[in-house]
Amino acid sequence: MEEVKRLCSSVLMMKDGLIVDRGTPEELITKYGRRNLEEVFLEIARK
Q1: What is the rounded CA–CA span in Å between residue 17 and residue 34?
Q2: pTM for this predicted structure
Q3: What is the C-alpha to C-alpha distance for residues 10 and 21, in angstroms, rounded to an integer?
Q4: What is the pLDDT along the chain (47 residues), one digit of tens a residue?
Q5: Which of 4, 19, 23, 46 could share a disulfide with 27, CB 3.0–4.6 Å?
Q6: CA 44 to chain centre
Q7: Contacts of residue 34, Cβ cutoff 8 Å, sequence gap at least 6
């Protein structure tokens, strides 16, 4: 996920084939109150 953060200006988070959130890597990290994109992904996956 660090590579995604480094290379991508926009990220889509999907669950069960549906887009559940989108934004810059930093926006998503801040929005979910996590330390990195991997933690954001896990938060979304567990919902």
Answers
A1: 23
A2: 0.85
A3: 11
A4: 889 989 999 999 999 999 999 999 999 999 999 999 999 999 999 98
A5: 23
A6: 8
A7: 40, 43
